[in-house]
Amino acid sequence: MKRWKKLGCLGVLLLAAAVCCTGPVLLAAAARSQNGPAAGAGIDAAAAGIPPRMLSAYLTGASQIGAHVPACKGMRWQILAGIARVESDHASGRTVSAGGDITPPITGPRLDGSGAGGNTTAIRDTDAGQWDGDTEFERAVGPFQFLPETFRAYGKDGNGDGILSPHNADDAATSAAVYLCGGGRNLGNRDQLRAAIHAYNRSWAYVDDVLSGIDRYDALGKAPQIPGGNVGAVIQAALAQQGIPYSWGGGDADGPSTGICCSPGGQDGRTVTGFDCSGLALYAYAQAGINLPRTAAAQAGVGRRIPASAGFSTLLPGDLVFYGYSPTNDSTIHHVGIYLGDGQMINAPRPGKPVRIDPVTALPDYAGGTRLL
Length: 373
Fold this sequence. Notes:
Elements: H1 24-30, H2 45-48, H3 52-63, H4 65-68, H5 77-88, E1 95-96, E2 102-103, H6 148-154, H7 169-181, H8 190-200, H9 204-219, H10 229-239, E3 257-258, E4 273-274, H11 277-286, H12 296-299, E5 304-306, E6 320-324, E7 333-341, E8 344-347, E9 356-359, E10 366-371
Antiparallel strand pairs: 1-2, 3-4, 5-10, 6-7, 6-10, 7-8, 8-9
């Protein structure tokens, strides 16, 4: 991650790691939490988009907080997963052993003040290169990207093997939980949760990014109520596309299709069969006999417009949900989802992410909705 310039004096950052199976001891520990029963029971790692071994680490870290910060309330695996999603995409590209050890180790850019990667403050070595392999300057380490000095202060042996390492998924997750809890925050309180995330990385944009992931993980397992009639037909058609890849310009009234070149991030939709956000809306509404324009901005001009100022509470299942750089200017709309109710939408998010259920707060620039049925 390119967040080195936001280190401040606390020096906690995060980055990347990956998969494996999980042992019975870890699963038993993860099933218990001081915050209530089975905080992660029944979680579908594939649906969450999290490698199973990393999910086990998040469950383990959340379950152990009572032993380390008894006054902390509201710690749950979703909070740890939300941070790791932003910083490491759940350790993608690494291998995680059954015991949680990550190979190859994860180290961030050299924090030498050179400006590379956004770091402008030199941080001299504090661990003699033990964890970051650099005896001159610090590097953030492990899947939760602690600075070595910070990990020494907050590090916990999450898997109980007697070895403390930021390159172990369980140790890192448990240590991140301890850091986020501070002296005893109530992380079930949204304001205190925001403060904890801000303490982890002093950027409000970072806080919003992490919270969008936490909200999505919190929504997992909540099956949307599907109404009848044409609204139900639209929602069922869209929900049936979960897991279909994102394709820039992809999707039409007949279903997923190849798209066009190229997304701002460089995806050539001509090589991917799937949907982009407006293609998914076009397809779903076609199943109810409604022909939508191709782009999200044009779709905002169809039906009864719901202004952003009215808030999410005015949305009904089946409404289109829009996001734009200026909430009162439809020409700036860049994204659309289909509202499911209960604060959720079915969404084709972006290249590399399949059609899935997301909270409507997953994007920060809500621009209202449209009701067609």
